[in-house]
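[job 4417] fold queue: 2 targets
>>> target A
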Amino acid sequence: MLSAAAIMTVIAGQRVKDGAPVARFEVVRSYPHDPQAFTQGLVFLDGVLYEGTGLNG
């Protein structure tokens, strides 16, 4: 009984995985980032990406 439940879980999980959308991306630029900062928020406005780091300044 437990084996059947395990098999059904694997099969059900596979169906969800196969049906999940896949996003593609391309890195067009890379910018330096302060290793002491953490991303607190992101805003994309008028073609510009702004990052809030949670640090003063």
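>>> target B
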Amino acid sequence: MENTSYWEYLKLNDDQHGILVTSVEQACILSKVLKENDVITAIDNVPIVDDEKLKFVDDTVTFTIIRQ
């Protein structure tokens, strides 16, 4: 299911979708890569196109992001 008001809140174009990063723990290895308010647009080169719940345990993933 797609939540268009969520995409509008993120100020993304019609052809962009993503997940908003609201915080990154400083102790987390991702703190050197992700920043608050980044929008993750793809994981492992798979675009985020709807409101999916993504769960990864001990997996390595590649993020594509929009930094504002």
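[job 4417] complete. Note on B: The two ends are 26 Å apart (CA to CA).
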